[in-house]
Amino acid sequence: MTTINAATYPIHFDEKAYNELTSLISKKNYSSIFILVDDNTLEHCYPRFMQLFATDKPIEVIQIDAGEIHKNIETCMGVWNVMTELGADRKSLLITLGGGVITDLGGFVASTFKRGIDFVNIPTTLLSMVDASVGGKTGVDLGVLKNQIGVFANPEMIVIDAEYLHTVSTREIRSGTAEIIKYGMTHDIRLFNEIKDNDQVNIVDLIHRSIEIKNEVVLEDPKEQDIRKVLNWGHTIGHGVESYFLENPKKEALTHGEAIAIGMVCEAYLSSEILGFPEEKVSEIKEAIIKIYGKIAIEKNDFKAILELMKHDKKNVAGEINFVLLKDYEDFKINCKASEELIKKSLAFYNA
Question: PANTHER family recorded for this chain (predicted)?
């Protein structure tokens, strides 16, 4: 697959990407290299990485616990302390080897350590390949509130190696597929059609196009002042659902993609009510999402708590919840408002 050039960094693909990484390290003459992993990527991904990566620089591996519940400032403090103890300086490089938690948290750690050191993202899950690692967003959660603390900071390079997808579960692949569906509905309907019409889709073929779309949007609006908000299609309600299921001991935590999939169904309903998005397409979205992700029980008693969590969404201004909604596939509008009653109706629609 051909290299995609972002604003200040390249996105390289397949095994040749490791040669580019070696060249970068040689050119920038880093003093030391730190590799951030979690329990899973240390076991399943690190051996492949070391097989393909060559350097004479000293390497230190820093391991954190896997999972969204560890994506917080306490984990960052642990990593900063270890880097300090191991003698990291402003000429050190941090390589993130993992999924969305590792790339988000690792980028934030690097961009704030000694006021900023270089980092390289090597995403190992579908979600992090097509979304989390690309676009310069870094950060951590504040309690159950998603990505409340962070900065915009670009990596020096991104390495996309689809072989790492063999190390993740089918559920994680489905989770990442939700972001590809998002790009399909907002920018290239072929992606959505490919997924909904085929039981056995070759996800690898869709990765490059998904990254192209995200990169095009980010190049136009790097700091999410305007058009980049479209990348939050399904995320306003989806993040509320994800946070609620994470904090409620009576609920089983959802993956990010499972929650965003629910959000897309609800926001398709809002799109129909507010912008006239065709009802048959709302039904098409709901049917496809439930076929792929199954049906998650969201009780009427859950609606109020989900709504409260949505009020912390980063797109909100002056306490008003802002949505990205569809007029049609590939035709969207940002900064849309919806009443609390209508939001509850959208959750009821998903439930029905």
Answer: 3-DEHYDROQUINATE SYNTHASE (PTHR43622:SF1)
- Residue 205: its pLDDT value, please? 84
Concerning whether 187 is annotated as a catalytic residue, the answer is no
214 is catalytic: yes
Q: Is 224 tagged catalytic? A: yes
- DSSP conformation letters of 59-76: EEEEEE--SGGG-SHHHH
Check if 190 is active-site.
no
311 in active site: no
The pLDDT, as a whole number, for residue 1 is 86
Closest by CA to 232, choosing from 178, 193, 308, is 178
Q: How many CB atoms are located within 10 Å of the residue 16 CB?
A: 12
Catalytic, 252? Answer no
Out of 27, 29, 74, 115, which one is annotated catalytic? 115
pLDDT at 319: 72
Question: What value does the CA radius of gyration of the chain take, rounded to a whole number of Å?
Answer: 20
Name 252's Cβ contacts closer than 8 Å, sequence gap at least 6. Answer: 245
Known catalytic membership, residue 228: yes
- Walk me through the domains of the chain, giving residue ranges and CATH numbers: 4-168 (3.40.50.1970), 178-199+223-351 (1.20.1090.10)
Q: Which residue among 256, 258, 267, 273 is the active-site one? A: 256
pLDDT at 327: 98
Residues of the chain with pLDDT under 50: none
Q: With residue 197 as reference, give the H or E element that holds it.
A: helix 189-197
pLDDT in the model for residue 318? 65
Q: Catalytic: 316?
A: no
209 in catalytic set: no
What is residue 38's predicted lDDT score, i.e. its pLDDT? 98
**Catalytic residue (one of 71, 146, 229, 239):** 239
Q: Which of 228, 258, 267, 286 is catalytic?
A: 228
**Segment 56-80, tens digit of pLDDT:** 999 999 999 999 999 999 999 999 9
* pTM of the complete model beyond 0.85: yes
